[in-house]
Design goal:
The chain is an all-alpha fold and 82 residues long. It has one domain (5-71). Helices cover 77% and strands 0% of the residues. The chain contains three helices and no strands. It is elongated and about 40 Å long.
């Protein structure tokens, strides 16, 4: 049984987000659990979506969220200037 390219892309985006969350929220178990729960919920909302345009939009959004978490998570973990 073959997995369609869009399903493979969704799985890759999901795993990437989970990995990013673990890296950004290292040591904060509550934040990791909350992010994981939210990610799961968002992906499940569109699990039966068949419109390729919608799927591409959601996968792009997942990549953007991952990038933003990496950029802003690192900044948030750094020293605070007062």
């Amino acid at each position: 049984m073959s997995i369609s390219p869009s399903k493979q892309a969704a799985i890759a985006a999901y795993r990437n987000l989970l990995k990013t969350q673990r890296e950004v929220f290292t040591g904060d178990l509550k934040a990791i659990q909350a992010a994981k729960k939210e990610t799961y919920s968002r992906f499940m909302q569109f699990k039966n979506e068949t419109n390729c345009d919608v799927l591409e939009e959601k996968l792009e959004l997942a990549d953007q969220v991952s990038s933003l978490l990496r950029q802003n998570g690192v900044k948030a973990a750094g020293p605070v200037d007062e």
